[in-house]
Amino acid sequence: MGENRTLLATRILLKALFPVMKVVVTDDPKMGKRFEGVSARVRFSVTGEAEPLGTDVVFEEGELSVDATMEGAPDVVFSFKTAEKFNAFMAGKPVIPGIRGWKRPGLIIKVVSLLLAMKILMPDARPKQEDKQRLKVKMIVYMITTALSQYNKGGDPEMSKWTGKQPDRIYQMSVDGEEIAAYVRVKAGKTKAGRGIYTRRRPFVHICFNGIEGALPVLLGDVEFVEALGRQMVTVEGSPEYAANLNDYMQRIQALIV
Amino acid sequence: MSEVTGTTWTVYDANSMSQAEIYGHVLCEIGDERKDVVGLTADLAKSTKIGLFGDKFPERFFNVGIAEQNLFGVAAGMALSGMTPFVSTMAAFASMRACEQVRTDICYQNLNCKIIATHGGISFGTAGSTHNAQEDVAIMRSFPNMTVIIPADGIETANAVRACVDWDGPVYIRVGRGFEPTWYDTEDYGFQIGKAVTVSEGTDITLICCGVTVLQAAEAAKVLKEEDGLSVRVLNLHTIKPLDEEAVLKAVLETRRVITFEEHNIYGGLGSAVADVIAESGKGCAFEKVGLPDAFSLVGYPEDLYAHYKLDTNGIIEKVREVMGRDFEEDEDWEDEV
After folding, report:
1. What is the pTM of this model?
2. Contact B94, B86 (CB under 8 A)
3. What tens digit of pLDDT does each residue of A83-120 get?
4. Nearest residue of B to residue A186 by CA position?
5. Which domains does chain B have, with CATH numbers?
6. Which of A16, A175, B210, B267 could pair with A147 as two cysteines, CB 3.0-4.6 Å apart?
7. How many angstroms away from the CA of A36 is the closest CA of chain B?
8. What's the CATH architecture for A130-257?
9. What residues of chain B lie within 8 A of the CB of A194, using their CB?
10. One-character DSSP codes across B305-332
11. Is the CB of residue A169 less than 8 Å away from at least one CB of chain B?
């Protein structure tokens, strides 16, 4: 049974978007310095739904991780009355969350700055600097692979049907010349995302972007996938039909969460 | 005339010629080019088609009578005298009746003796266990210096026979009875002794085949793509020794599921050779050997026997579906993701 589309979007944002915050803290020197030595637990929760939804962003000496169990005591809480409001907030729309934890105003400011930095993922964000372009590509590749897996785990009927008939397969994405790679493993209806190159065997489909300059226009939607193939901005090894299916699901996810 | 090898028959003729007939024709062509080539048989000139060579070069053809041990002893002597003997008899007789002579007279001295063994496997199924050769590959590949080739069809037989002329040392080429369908439509597909031929690319599973199973696996791969959406790699591993270990390991690493199909006892043939490579590599994969079980074969028409032993297209499809259901990955925790 699939979740409703709002809750499915919330699931994807919580499970796929939040882990990508780590990339910002790790790869953006300014942001890394901002969180240097910080130890805190920051909770994002949706209160008004039948089941509690949310995740904790945990900093340990500046190292960021995501804890979906929400078991520790939070230092700061960002709360949303509905999943819809949470989704709108994460899509950059004007929603003000409830905030608890004003004893640590500095931490709140830092977290807000981190959330603002996540806006680089928005389709209309067009970074000019090379390092920012690289950051955007890396975040999208990491996020989209996890999002694909979560889209299936959330029970999207079409994707469930698509994954359900497949044997154990790897769908790999990578950016040539960069250490940016992530994959989704599919097996008889189950999915799992991972980072890096899957080395245990050859992927069923490998979408390889030709550097950042090849990846960015495709991921921003400026160049159609088919056109990008013709212009050698991206190459696909393996089944072109299944690569097209994957691209289709990526677009559906984007439409769902933005 | 073939543009590739200059043969006097074409691929169209190949459809109406048996593997052995093609061998006979190719040997005649080689006989024109190489005066050191001689032909020998043990009263099977007609069945093995080496008689075509005998008709053309009677002065270079020797029928020793029903005396296989003598056949290989004579061939060894001719090789020591600077000739290149092509010896033809049935696979069962070459590998078992004349086992010691092949081993000690030919392999021990690493002589340039080329054995073209016909009626391999169960291709002469109605003749029964006395004439079946379901152990020959195991025997031959255990002999030092011996090269073992099982061509997929008549075209590949032609390539193998031509390639073996200048190949150093003894060679055992195992062909069927002669009614096997043709798979290749050209000789120009890159045949090399010791190098696997990729019949179809795939990433879900690899079918490693030799002999008649190549065509069946290629047909099965098409059906599995259409019906099951599977991406099936088919390797024609025509040379059992020396084995193309690189192609086997590539298949293991890239598809992690491997099935071997062969018209031979599952012990000691292609499957065992592939299993050795996999075991020594330490790499994991789902693996199965499909061939003749460790029992004397049933008696019957080859096509019925191939179907019974899962060596036909339908049997291969069935086996693939079975192996696709097996796990091979170490990590089965589907919740733990980034």
Report:
1. 0.81
2. no
3. 999 999 999 899 999 999 989 999 999 999 999 999 99
4. B334
5. 11-174 (3.40.50.970), 197-324 (3.40.50.920)
6. A16
7. 23
8. 2-Layer Sandwich (3.30)
9. 337-338
10. HHHHTT-SHHHHHHHHHHHHTS---S--
11. yes
